[in-house]
Amino acid sequence: MHAGFAEEVVVWSEDASVSSFVGSYNRILNGVVLTATSGNSDINVNGSMTIENHGEIRGNLVAESDNWIWINNTGNVSGTINAQHIIQLVTSGDGAKRLNVNTGDFAVKVDGAMDGVNLADIRNLGSDSVEFNMSVIVIDDFAEWQRWDANVSWLGANTLRINNSNTVESGKYVRHVAGGTVLNVVAADEDSLYRIDSVRDENGMMLNVVRETDYQRIFNDNRGVFFGNLRASNPNDKMLLAMDNAGSMDELQNVINSSYRFNSGILMRPIKTNLQFSMLNGFLDTNNAFAIGVEPEFITSKDTHSAGARLYANGGHDGYDIKVNLHLDKFEYEDDINVFGGLSYGGNVNVKKKMEDISVVGRLGLDLISFDADNVYNNNDVKNNPFGYALYGGIDGIHDFNVFDDLTIAPFVGMVFQRFNVMDFSENDVSLRGGGMLKYNFVVDGIKYEYGGLIGVMTNGDLFADFKIGFDSLTDNAGLSINVGAYNDERSMAYRASINAKMLF
Asked: Can you give the pTM of this predicted structure?
């Protein structure tokens, strides 16, 4: 049955058979089913009234003479609505349901729908007259709005929320919008990379799609402040320029993840390049009772450039060859997003034990790194010039096959490990490697000539090679050699060139 809470307001709270609606306002609650009385498919609407239906009406609604029907329907009406004047009220997205109407005067009023009503649902209602009041209209393809042939009017302040800003053609007038219309237009793309600016004149409103570069509007955290400060101090920063060229939020995040400012592990890329060659030192060396020397070197790849020198001393004791190295390197790194540099300094020890034709070589080293890298975002804080370290070492077994007195072929197999640490980044890497060497040396007129080369492969797929040409003056106790090497990893090919000058004792 139904009960009236106030004059002319009727609330239907349970199922019923109905012959007519009376009063100025009928509300059918959710879950309630109203059915036309037995033997009749019509429910009469006696007078002009509003029908708010959240349940189900089974039957035709019939209004006499010049009565108006305002219907707000989030439920279901199975029959036809027959009236000279029908206005469908839409107050939420759930209320944009198409009705079967039989009238010469049918209009839609979208009123107070601040949660958003989709344009496609509004168009599907079938009315050529639509009024918007204090509502949000959701548009998937803005071209559909521009093609919409309807009589549109406005009351109050309304909003067009465009889901795909790429569908907006900049510089075009928005259809159905007069010069004095109070209307806000926003882009609702998930990536928030675009904003829509409006330009008004006496003829209406034009839209321009603008790529958002104020990242404080995109990131609702300290990152936005960080980007704003960085742009103020260095507007041509490569990371910011790459971010500004990103076409989607995924591309933008990839740029951020590829920057040392947010991924401190990238700082270790040039260090890894340099250590790859340090792990080859000693393979092609000739054993000496005792020697000291200096070896300037230069390393380059598509993104890393490093110049430095090693100071070393080597000698033998109790069947062991021991080599101690100290080094200092200045490096620079630059790619499409990053520019930084720094100093690396440290040392390593190589120990070789030869047992007839088999040698075992072990190495252990530590590098300390002072980075010249500013504005590093770390745990909601900004750091400059961080400090890091690299610990590395390994062991290799070498078997010498003497083809001739002066020619040796030596396959090798071993294991290397590296540990990198800077700020919140820490990484351990262990790989196996194997390869072969060819060494040729001979003495003529007190000068020992040396030629050597090696090639090898890592279990992680890296390839490497090193070549040496040198001579030792046995009478002057001095020597000079040139080394050229290459190392290919997943990022790039790197090259090293060095000159080794030594004194023999």
From this structure: 0.76
